[in-house]
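Continuing the batch. This is chain 6 of the set; chains 1 through 5 are on the previous pages. Same settings as before, nothing changed between runs. Recording input and output for traceability.
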Amino acid sequence: MKVRIAQPYNDRDIEDSVLSVLRSGRLVSGPMVESFEEAIAEYIGVRNVVAVNSGTAALHLSLLSLDFSKGREVITTPFSFVATANTIIQSGGTPVFVDINPETFNIDPRQIEKAVTSRTVAIEPVHVFGEPAEMKHIQEIAERHNLRLVEDAAEAIGAEYDGKKIGDTDEFACFSTYATKNLHTGEGGFITTNDDEAAATFRILLSQGQRSKYLHVRLGYNYRMTEIAAAIGKAQIKKLDAFTNKRIENANRLTGEIADLPILTPQKVPPNVKHVYYQYTVALNEEEAGMRREELQRRLSAAGIETDVHWPIPIHLQPWYRETFGFGPGMFPHAERLARTVLSLPIHPALTEEQIEYISEALHAALR
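Output for chain 6:
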């Protein structure tokens, strides 16, 4: 049996939507992007959605709104995709990493509090694999120290914290709609905010600083989402909750199937959050298993099961970051341990019950 790690969604509605754009002759900055933004705003319950061409662009534009004079810093996690930190630097700031909660895989608010200095201007939590970070505590820290919040919600469309959707914020939440995401546009992303003035500024910045055609009032970027990308995404929004529920159902089933394998530890989900399972990721106790993660991955591959590692090297140990900032091993032990031991298993909504059972059987056979 072949079980894929991801399967980007496609159906007749998406194909018809894309064809309608192609036949319209308008491929950029047209009514489909606007319609996509309106549909996302309604889904999340936020006033403004600004569509862009990647999750990285969403982070970059949001971070550009901060004051990065005189060596200002943003506190974030090293256990994330590198764009989380790259965009801080590209915006003129300096990333300050703190360690994670080893159970939830998310940034640890207690470590955030310790890292705040007079140079700190913002906190950038990441909702890792679709599980919301501890936003109540993070918001309290931000308010106490007068800091801004830029949420890296690249993997968290539809996720909830205390019954409220991630992205319904007066600050900024940045989403990705890359091909493997829960809601995809092939490539793309968007910013959500209840700040009308900031949203208007983002719309200028994403189109080369134009307030109107050929009137450039800011230094801007080419971050526009295409009409075709918006058409792919728009056709999925009404189906998103069904996709999410299937991911949760698959995750719960797989968790139950491997409950007798304590050497595999899934991400802990607190009762006040809704995890949307962009990835279903487990940490392997390599000592008790008697094998490295790579060996488990090889055995699953031999059984036809695709897996992936998110992320094999934490950001601070990436070569450029080590050379530039002098980071080294041992600085953030929880993030480093997870980077060495985590493995993402198939959990997408196209999986069948038979396939989930097959994944469980393969895990049991590999770890027997």
